[in-house]
Amino acid sequence: MKKYSIKDIAKLSGVSVATVSRVINNNGRFSEETRKKVLKVIDETGYQMNYSAKSLRMNKSFSIGILVPDISNYFFSDVVQKIEEILFDKGYSTIICNTTRNNEKEAAYLQMLESKGVDGLIVISGANEFGFDYTRSEKDIPYICIDREPKDKDSTVFISSNHYQGAFEATEALIHSGCKSPVIAMHARRSSSGKERYNGFKDALKKNNIAFSKEKNVLIADIHTEDFPEVISKFINENPVDGIFAINDSIAMELLQKIAKLGKKIPEDIKVIGFDNMPQDKYSSPTLSSVKQDTDKIAAAAVDSLLKIIASPGETGDAILIPVSLVVRESSL
Amino acid sequence: MKKYSIKDIAKLSGVSVATVSRVINNNGRFSEETRKKVLKVIDETGYQMNYSAKSLRMNKSFSIGILVPDISNYFFSDVVQKIEEILFDKGYSTIICNTTRNNEKEAAYLQMLESKGVDGLIVISGANEFGFDYTRSEKDIPYICIDREPKDKDSTVFISSNHYQGAFEATEALIHSGCKSPVIAMHARRSSSGKERYNGFKDALKKNNIAFSKEKNVLIADIHTEDFPEVISKFINENPVDGIFAINDSIAMELLQKIAKLGKKIPEDIKVIGFDNMPQDKYSSPTLSSVKQDTDKIAAAAVDSLLKIIASPGETGDAILIPVSLVVRESSL
Predict the structure, then answer these.
(1) DSSP classification of residue B150
(2) CA distance A91 to chain B (A)
(3) What's B163-292+328-332's CATH class?
(4) Measured between CA atoms, how close is A320 to chain B, in angstroms?
(5) Where are the domains of chain B?
(6) CA B93, CA B80: separation in Å to the nearest integer?
(7) Please, are residues A277 and A292 in contact by the beta-carbon 8 Å criterion?
(8) Which residue among A146, A284, B7, B204 is least packed, with the fewest CB closer than 10 Å?
(9) Which chain B residues have a beta carbon less than 8 Å from that of A95?
(10) DSSP string spanning B230-251?
């Protein structure tokens, strides 16, 4: 039996190789008529898709991989879904890989995405800079980073919310509504966005002539540990806390509850502002003020940048900083 | 140049073909020493992974696809993450595809997963029965269904929470705390789990000799539409509502807020119970009672069933029904 190539299939169907590829991958735009024609030829010839990861990549697979640390996190799932929507409209499938902040897992998923021949990669968040340290084909896959510094800044685009601005504005909002001694509540884990938020908080204190000390103005707490309530209680009893900027809404939500249990009133005794503007912020008691990230713009910039890099490797743009906005609710009035 | 096969690589490395496959896919267990040895041989021979989707599947790709309608939904993301954890420990990568309840998208992702050569497929939820209608290679990929009826019950395993039991117990809890006229609040969208919850509600009324009518006991409302507040307000003003079983927590959460705005007290005037036990249930005011699904057990049963079907095609088990439990909080006291 003659072995048919994708070129043969294209010729016999009277369409381009790109169209055959799109039909095979069911990606991109083609008519039902074209689909039937190509599939008929494939059936008649017994054509088997036979490709190496590399050649598949050169032909384009119309699939994009996303590495995300935690799909149960509202911000991450929101951005990922919006990216998926845009990519699908452009004819790309999205492969979502959940790395659970685990380096070994990230390495495994990178290898898998390479072996599946994705056209590009979107890397969201993570503790360290991102690079292709684990794989054998460095820089082979075009990629862009959201909320994570790339190691090799010349080969990619770095996209993030203006976390610094969000933290700065939230902290100034606390100060302007009378807080003399604002505190930042954060987890011990470091991320590029976390560092920016920390810096924004510190600079807002500085600008308003409030002395900063790690002991009095920084509350490190992990909401997933058992001693979280004691850590909060101890910190609030030992320090003159009247305002808290929580580095994310999960921490802020826990604070609302724990502070109420300590007999303090929010916002009268202590004002609280979170980060991410999760849907549940409007259901808590009191409702939670929070910094809102513009996930529509982040998703659009991510897809736009990645497709540009895929089309013209080497042509990378500057880092893209997306503005954020403060949503004021009862907890900081 | 001689063309090397995976068998040649295995021979030259002194390991099995399965080990070479695991190293290439960076999946499963192997030592760092083995990895280096195999990669050295691959580099020296210039071996290119060259496989068709079919043969790759026969060699096993150690990857599993998941079709999920909405990763921003708490229950879905929780189950998906738990499945991913178990699969990764067993040496499998998980490819998550977000279908946004869109049939065209589901078809495209099914095609993509086939072309990427996944070993198996987990299908979560969806309006219709699941079958391989869209693809050319029916039944080629072993699959199991969670919360979605498979078309061909003999080739798969159907796993779900006992939605009927959860709805029945929630409704009886309302009745036992004094509700004379319980209502089910649900969206217009139909799903297999939604139908079961509806039946559980109706049967609880029947058992307790409460007459059921679609007009008085069923509140159809979509929280994403603008007229949601009016729909709620009209229904509550026109009917003697004293208890609501909401088919999910998103609806329940909106009800808590809208009912309070109508000047009614929860739980004194109207008791509310939701479904899914989302993390935010404990932050709302009042805190929300809800039916909890056992996502640990669902994930474990899903992986276990799928790997059995992959290992022994044709040997499928009975449907698996996972018990649920009612978590009582302030909203139904």
Answers:
(1) B
(2) 10
(3) alpha beta
(4) 25
(5) 6-50, 61-161+295-322, 163-292+328-332
(6) 12
(7) yes
(8) B7
(9) 95-97, 112, 116
(10) HHHHHHHHHS---EEEESSHHH
CB count within 10 Å of CB A215 equals 8
Residue (of A304, A296, A278) closest to A92 by Cα position: A304
Query: Where does the pLDDT of residue A40 fall: very low under 50, low under 70, confident under 90, or very high at 90 and above?
Result: confident
User: Is it the case that residue B53 has pLDDT exceeding 60?
Assistant: no
Whole-complex ipTM: 0.79
CA–CA separation, A181 vs B277, rounded Å? 37
Find, in chain B, the residue whose alpha carbon is nearest to that of A117.
B116
Q: What is the pLDDT of residue B59?
A: 58
Q: Which of B180, B200, B323, B332 is nearest to B266 (CA)?
A: B332
Which chain A positions have a beta carbon within 8 Å of B136's beta carbon?
39, 43
| Token pair for B287 | 């805190």
CB contact under 8 A, A94 and B97: yes
A38: pLDDT strictly greater than 90 = no
Q: Is the peptide bond before B313 cis (omega within 30 degrees of 0)?
A: no
Do residues A183 and A245 make contact, with C-beta atoms less than 8 angstroms apart? Answer: yes
Question: B6-50: what CATH class?
Answer: mainly alpha
How confident is the model over A180-194, as a mean pLDDT? Answer: 91
pLDDT at A325 over 80: yes
Mark yes or no for CB contact B81/A70 under 8 Å. yes
Chain B residue numbers touching A80 (CB-CB < 8 A): 71, 98
Find chain A residues with C-beta within 8 A of B43's C-beta.
Answer: 136
> Could you give the count of Cα atoms lying within 13 Å of B288 in the half-sphere of its Cβ?
32
Least CA distance to A88: which residue of chain B? Answer: B105
Q: Which amino acid is at B91?
A: G
- How far is B94 from chain A, CA to nearest CA, in Å? 7
Local confidence band at A16 (pLDDT 50, 70, 90 cut-offs): confident
Is the four-CA dihedral B150, B151, B157, B160 of positive or negative sign?
positive
DSSP secondary structure string, A64-99? EEEEES-TTSHHHHHHHHHHHHHHHHTT-EEEEEE-
Gap between the Cα atoms of A194 and A282, Å rounded: 24
* Cα→Cα distances A136→A64, B4, B91, Å: 19, 19, 20
Q: Look at residues A121, A159, A161 and name the one whose alpha carbon lies nearest to residue A143.
A: A121
Among B71, B96, B256, select the one facing A283 at the smallest CB separation: B256
* Interchain CB distance below 8 Å, A97 and B94: yes
Cα A128 to Cα B172: distance, rounded to the nearest angstrom: 52
3-state helix, strand, coil in chain B (%, to 5): 45, 15, 35
For the segment(s) B61-161+295-322, the CATH number from 3.40.50.10490, 3.40.50.2300, 1.20.58.100, 1.10.10.10 is 3.40.50.2300
> Count of CB atoms within 10 A of residue B256's CB?
23
Contact A111 B25 (CB under 8 A): yes
Q: Would A6-50 and A163-292+328-332 be classified into the same CATH topology? A: no
pLDDT bin (cut points 50, 70, 90) of residue A27 is low
DSSP letters spanning A203-224? HHHHHTT----HHHHEEE--TT
**φ/ψ (deg, to 5) at B195:** -65, -45
Q: For residue B146, which phi and psi values (nearest 5 degrees)?
A: -110, 125
Topology of domain A61-161+295-323, CATH: Rossmann fold (3.40.50)
State pLDDT tens for residues A117-154: 899 999 999 877 888 765 545 446 899 999 998 888 77
